[in-house]
Specification:
The protein is mainly α and 576 residues long. The protein has 30 helices and no strands.
Length: 576
């Protein structure tokens, strides 16, 4: 089985031979064996860029920088990938970051110069180097040779017949330019013809990739134009002693981390802490090590230590530009630790902060649960029957004074203070009815009877609200409930009056429509249509046609009586 170094050597050979696909395969195999080796990611990034797979090249370059933040070549790889993606501003920033680590790097300086030139062109109205095609093609139109001769820098190129042939070939077919882009004289001539000769004012090496400007030949046999030097692959020997030491420490940190993970899974928390501390000693820039250590403290029930360690993880993550998911994880763990300490406010604060970094479903679920719990606690802390009674009494006085909106506010306060007192809901329902907030009034009546099914006034107030909504059948159902629970007949007068109002309104309504019109309207009403489609009700209606007295017996059944009231209200059944 090949080692990582052997596979890397094969990848370098494949790259040098121009077989970039094979090189990527070799470097990928090497990475599987040595996933913390920054050189492997760097070399694979170069291979990806050679195939113009800039997105993949960028991912490898970012991994290189992550593994070795002080290594200038990683920034060069990242800058090149961003340049290929036409992200010129980001490429400039990346090269500048690299120069902070190695101010004398010619590679980074050159990359920065290229990126700044491309960015400047983009600001001037261009859309990147890929959009130069039409301008490059037009550059070789007209009396090109005369223009080249007129420029002292390009005039010597005409001494080479091969150069002249290439220019004429491009004139004949502008698409042929791509065949000659390895000849730097063509590139220099193109920029000169486009009026951008100043790009090469300091020599072609300021812009092109490591290719020297060809010299004119006095002989009839011109010297072939030099080609760009191939990308250089890094070897272990290329790395400085400092880089080697850093790589070794990262490998040691990874090994200690694996031991810590194994101990954590075995719930050997003391041993896990030892291993994670060892890993952090080797590489204190890795946020995952701090996160794992915080997780151990959490499982041990040491929530203060967990919070402190997770805070350290956030600081490390911010400083070394860790993935937002890792930072969000640390914040989420702090939130959970505060939750265990029953500090709901701090827990909710950190859950919200975590979600601003990365929206994780589990954190969102925890946040909603804590918000619900906090709301419930706040409501429980607000409970006070004595203050609830006082608020209801204030509401009663305001109701008598016809100040219904103010009365409603007091009844709402009474409900918050004493949510299990049915009187508060019944009284607020009366206010809401006066304010014509009828659906809300009905909800309060229903809540009242759920707390006290014998509260007669809730039924009569519901009946009145339904009457105002012209839901006469349902109003009569509420009247029947009121009759059922009015055992001592204290509310019989109000009940009878409400019932009379309902039937009077039904009679008046039915007088304005014929039976045929009533049937047509009933068929358009889903509730009435459902009653008419019921086989039992159909049988009862047939009985009532032959024997009207049969209705009295059927009215003793509450369900049938309710359906009959619906039909009466709809004008289908008429009592006379």
């Amino acid at each position: 089985m090949s080692t990582a170094n052997e596979l890397k050597a094969k990848g370098n050979e494949a790259f040098a031979a121009g077989n970039h696909t094979a090189a990527i395969d070799f470097f990928s195999q090497a990475i599987e064996l040595d996933p913390t080796n920054h050189v492997l990611y760097s070399n694979r990034s170069a291979s990806q860029s050679s195939l113009k797979k800039y997105t993949e090249a960028l991912a490898d370059a970012e991994k290189t920088v992550e593994l070795m933040p002080a290594w200038a070549k990683g920034y060069s790889r990242k800058g090149a990938a961003l340049f290929g993606l036409q992200e010129y501003a980001m490429a400039v920033a990346t090269y500048q970051d690299g120069l902070k680590h190695d101010p004398e790097s010619a590679l980074l300086k050159k990359g920065l110069s290229d990126a700044e030139a491309a960015l400047e062109h983009e600001k001037d109205g261009g859309a990147g180097y890929d959009d130069f095609a039409s301008k490059m093609s037009n550059a070789f139109q007209g009396d090109v040779l005369a223009k080249i001769m007129a420029n002292p820098k390009t005039a010597p190129y005409l001494a080479d017949p091969e150069f002249v042939r290439k220019v004429k070939d491009i004139q004949a077919n502008p698409e042929n330019m791509s065949k000659y882009m390895d000849d730097q004289r063509i590139t220099v001539a193109m920029f000169t013809l486009m009026g951008m000769g100043d790009v090469f004012a300091k020599g072609a090496d300021d812009f092109m990739n490591d290719a020297a400007e060809p010299k004119t030949q006095s002989t009839t046999q011109p010297k072939p134009a030099p080609k760009a030097e191939p990308e250089v692959m890094e070897t272990e020997e290329d790395a400085s002693e400092e880089d080697k030491e850093a790589a070794t420490k990262k490998a040691q940190a990874a090994e200690a981390k694996e031991k810590g993970n194994a101990a954590y899974k075995a719930r050997q928390f003391d041993e896990a802490l030892v291993q994670y501390d060892n890993a952090i000693e080797f590489d204190s820039t890795d946020i995952t090590l701090w996160n794992n250590k915080a997780a151990v403290y959490f499982e041990m029930g040491k929530y203060d230590e967990c919070i402190e360690t997770a805070q350290q993880a956030i600081e490390v993550g911010r400083e070394y530009r860790a993935d937002y998911k890792h930072i969000a994880k640390a914040m989420g763990r702090i939130g959970t630790a505060y939750s265990k300490k029953d500090n709901l406010d701090k827990a909710i604060e950190f859950y919200n902060r975590s979600l601003t970094e990365h929206r994780a479903a589990d954190v969102l679920t925890k946040l909603r649960a804590l918000e619900k719990l906090r709301k419930q606690r706040e409501e429980d802390e607000y409970l006070d029957d004595e203050k609830g009674n006082a608020a209801r009494e204030r509401g009663n006085e305001l109701f008598k004074a016809a100040k219904y909106a103010e009365a409603q506010a007091e009844y709402s306060e009474a409900i918050k203070r004493s949510p299990k007192d049915p009187r508060n809901y019944a009284n607020r329902a009366a206010c809401l009815t006066k304010l014509i907030a009828l659906p809300d009034a009905i909800k309060d009546c229903d809540k009242c009877v759920s707390l006290d099914p014998t509260y007669v006034k809730a039924y009569t107030r519901k009946a009145n609200a339904l009457f105002l909504m012209r839901e006469y059948a349902e109003a009569l159902d509420a009247v029947e409930e009121a009759k059922l629970h009015d055992k001592d007949k204290k509310n019989s007068a109000e009940i009878d009056q409400t019932e009379y109002k309902c039937y009077s309104a039904i009679t008046e309504q039915n007088s304005r429509q014929t039976p045929e019109q009533a049937i047509a309207r009933a068929q358009a009403n889903p509730k009435i249509a459902a009653v008419l489609a019921n086989p039992i009700m159909q049988n009862i209606l047939q009985q009532m046609q032959s024997d009207p007295r049969a209705a009295r017996e059927h009215l003793k059944n509450p369900a049938i009586a309710s359906n009959l009231r619906k039909l009466i209200a709809a004008g289908i059944v008429r009592m006379g």
